[in-house]
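Example for tutorial group B:
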């Protein structure tokens, strides 16, 4: 009886309806942004997508086992190319130094082999769709893209033109790639429907507007290449009439206009055309691969070096961070963050992470799509217009990936279009009514279904429920909105979670413990809080050990572990934790010898431990890593200053300022006072002047008005003291010029500055020589009307130098 009921439920109409419903649900991925998640734009939508595809696969298995259906994959080159790539990626992951990370990714990306297996499964589900059902899927996908575009337009309207729109995707570049597919959806539907063509073209225009508001250069370049390619295909394939050349001529004209505007903006960056041009064209015109955009090319060079390390199978998917750590270019510190987990070139990333075999397999997917598309046209299953749209889209997305990377929002639509192309070439799909009744015993079908049900249940628990629970707990720790006891209770969940996406877990736990450092003495005195914090340290240390076991070459993990151990040393007062921290930092330096963070932290650890000689040696090595960086020079200057090496400290401070690195004002004040004690007022003046220039630019000497940011009291004191140093050195011109800086820092002192300038210009310097500040510090003791900042600024130089 139960078998009969199941058979009736799984008739062709019912199981196909279930698949269609699940596929349409999957299209909602770009607008799934629930609150309370760690990386809310990534983790929940990826988990949702995987659950949907796994349930869809279970429906197909049931239909094959209990319905009169059979699976036919003989004519599916795209599917087999996806499986081949996933297989090669799996092989690469098995030999990867970070196997689990390569297999399952992390919460920030949710990629890896597991993601590609689900994309292949998504393709298989789409290939069960019949011709009459494709319109439902395509129109649903287009409607979702219009919703996302509307959100982008609202973002732009609310935020103005300063920031690119990111809408519900959370990243402007990934939004633009998604809307690129939205435009292609509308274009394809317009090519197949005369009745609603204008409506579809309007939707394409709206998605284009959202794409423009995303301000993404890569997508615009891809769109231009794709449009030209599509126009050429249309002109070559459409045999009748001269009108076939209109689209090509119009497209080329638009591309030339956009290129011309970009060229004018580049030549006249402050011209009227620049101010009125779309922001994306301004960004495109100002692209500088040898300047602000060099961080991308640095990643490309690192990926090529990573490929040389492991040419056959690479480091494993999702492991560009290991490639970057091993081949980090210190020049990145002058441009951008030193943390990169993506190459921003999908092809080079695959070359480094999956090696030669993985790159060839990925290119095989494109080849299978191209061959299938050509066959579909030759079989007259698609028109010249549809061929132009589908072919142009592939070129556009391939161009985009030259500067970016795959992402669920856009890649799932790439798979959708691949399945659409396959359905045009082979309309029968992969699940067909069996010609002959199966001779397989019914018990085999029951066993296969039961095994599939068990497999899906395990997958839903281990790769959906478990990471979802851990993600929510991690979000609570990261946000730390609750009490300390409530937040630390989440540590128990994280410590017990057996999930795979754990790359951020120890980092977030350690960061939260560091935020409590000021309360350590108080918590030590409370027995309950002490036990609670001791358990948290133990769980965090365990999380670090587990993750380091999974990802042995990740230098940042060792660095963050060292930070946690230094916090533990502060809490317990134990020497063993300091030794553990220094060991972890030395390991991090060994793994990434050109990254500065671990060297700077190691020097700080030695300094706090009283080992100043070792700290100096570490900082000297840090300076050698890249002599053009200012931060290590500043830190070494602090070390020298603390041990009486004033001349060496001065040289390093001046060189760090030339590299545009500015440290704490107290260090420059201390150095300047030593110089003044030694009678070197001119040297002190040069140091103070360089400090103000580096921090506020040379505009401080041009009396530009008030500076639009908070100014520390020490800086006001320096600005008020500097002109007097030049007076003592008889540098009247410099004294007058630097006095103007006080007006920039405190506009209420303009009258005082004018009086000083008048006296110095009239050679009446005597009244100022004995002063330490242009501020009326003598009146401070009796006047109650002065601001606190003025009182403090006077106090900085009130003591005899």
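The residue assignment follows.
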């Amino acid at each position: 009886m139960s078998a009969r009921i199941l058979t009736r439920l799984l008739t062709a109409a019912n199981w196909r309806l279930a698949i269609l419903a699940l596929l349409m649900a999957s299209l909602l991925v770009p607008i799934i942004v629930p609150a309370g998640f760690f990386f809310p734009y990534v983790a929940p939508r990826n988990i949702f997508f995987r659950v949907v595809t796994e349930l869809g696969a279970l429906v197909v298995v049931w239909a094959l086992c209990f319905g009169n259906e059979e699976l036919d994959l003989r004519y599916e080159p795209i599917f087999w190319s996806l499986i081949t790539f996933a297989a090669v990626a799996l092989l690469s992951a098995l030999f990867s130094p970070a196997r689990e990370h390569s297999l399952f990714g992390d919460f920030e990306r949710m990629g890896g082999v597991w993601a590609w297996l689900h994309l292949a499964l998504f393709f298989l589900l789409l290939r069960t769709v019949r011709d009459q059902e494709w319109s439902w899927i395509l129109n649903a996908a287009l409607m979702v893209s219009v919703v996302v575009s509307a959100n982008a337009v609202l973002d732009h309207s609310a935020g103005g033109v300063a920031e690119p729109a990111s809408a519900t995707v959370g990243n402007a570049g990934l939004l633009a790639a998604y809307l690129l597919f939205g435009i292609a959806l509308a274009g394809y539907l317009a090519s197949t429907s005369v009745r609603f063509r204008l409506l579809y073209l309007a939707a394409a225009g709206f998605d284009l507007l959202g794409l423009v508001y995303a301000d993404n250069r890569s997508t615009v370049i891809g769109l231009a290449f794709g449009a030209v390619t599509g126009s050429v295909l249309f002109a070559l394939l459409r045999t009748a009439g001269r009108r076939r050349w209109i689209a090509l001529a119009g497209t080329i004209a638009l591309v030339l206009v956009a290129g011309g505007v970009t060229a004018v903006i580049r030549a006249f960056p402050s011209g009227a055309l620049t101010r009125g041009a779309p922001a994306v064209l301004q960004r495109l015109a100002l692209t500088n691969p040898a300047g602000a955009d060099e961080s991308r090319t640095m990643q490309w060079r690192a990926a090529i070096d990573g490929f040389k390390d492991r040419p056959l199978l690479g480091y494993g998917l999702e492991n560009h961070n290991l490639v970057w750590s091993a081949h980090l270019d210190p020049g990145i510190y002058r441009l951008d963050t030193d943390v990169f987990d993506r190459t921003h070139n999908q092809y080079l990333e695959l070359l480094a992470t999956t090696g030669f075999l993985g790159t060839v397999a990925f290119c095989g997917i494109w080849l299978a799509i191209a061959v299938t598309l050509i066959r579909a046209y030759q079989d007259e299953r698609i028109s010249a217009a549809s061929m132009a749209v589908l072919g142009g889209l592939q070129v556009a997305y391939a161009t985009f990936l030259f500067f970016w990377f795959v992402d669920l929002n856009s890649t799932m639509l790439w798979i959708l279009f691949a399945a659409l192309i396959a359905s045009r070439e082979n309309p029968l799909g992969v699940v067909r009514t069996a010609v002959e009744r199966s001779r397989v015993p019914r018990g085999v079908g029951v066993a296969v279904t039961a095994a599939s049900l068990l497999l899906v249940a395990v997958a839903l628990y281990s790769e959906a429920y478990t990471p979802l629970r851990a993600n929510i707990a991690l979000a609570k720790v990261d946000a730390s909105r609750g009490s300390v006891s409530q937040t630390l209770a989440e540590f128990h969940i994280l410590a017990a979670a057996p999930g795979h996406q754990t790359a951020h877990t120890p980092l977030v736990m350690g960061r939260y413990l560091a935020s409590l450092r000021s309360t350590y003495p108080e918590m030590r005195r409370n027995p309950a809080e002490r036990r609670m914090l001791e358990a948290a340290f133990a769980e965090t240390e365990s999380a670090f050990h587990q993750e380091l076991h999974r990802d042995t070459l990740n230098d940042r993990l060792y660095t963050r572990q060292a930070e946690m151990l230094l916090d533990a040393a502060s809490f317990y007062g134990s020497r063993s934790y300091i030794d553990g921290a220094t060991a972890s930092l030395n390991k991090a330096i060994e793994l990434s010898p050109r990254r500065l963070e671990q060297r700077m932290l190691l020097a700080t650890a030695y300094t706090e431990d009283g080992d100043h000689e070792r700290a100096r040696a570490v900082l000297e090595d840090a300076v050698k890593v890249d002599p053009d960086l200012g931060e290590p020079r500043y830190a070494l200057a602090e070390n020298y200053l603390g041990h009486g090496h004033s001349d060496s400290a001065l040289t390093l401070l001046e060189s760090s300022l030339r590299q545009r690195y500015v440290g704490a004002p107290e260090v420059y004040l201390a150095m300047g006072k030593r110089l003044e004690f030694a009678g070197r007022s001119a040297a002190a003046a040069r140091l103070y002047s360089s400090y103000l220039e580096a921090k506020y630019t040379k505009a401080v000497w041009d009396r530009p008005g008030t500076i639009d940011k908070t100014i520390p009291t020490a800086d006001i004191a320096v600005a008020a003291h500097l002109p007097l140093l030049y007076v003592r050195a008889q540098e009247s011109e410099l004294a007058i010029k630097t006095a103007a800086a006080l007006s920039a820092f405190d506009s209420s002192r303009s009258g005082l500055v004018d009086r000083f300038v008048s006296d110095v210009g009239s050679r009446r310097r005597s009244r100022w020589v004995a002063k330490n500040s242009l501020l009326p510090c003598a009146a401070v003791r009796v006047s109650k009307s002065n601001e606190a900042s003025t009182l403090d600024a006077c106090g900085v130089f009130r003591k005899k130098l």
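The first helix runs from residue 2 to 9. Compare this with the pattern of hydrophobic and polar residues in the output above.
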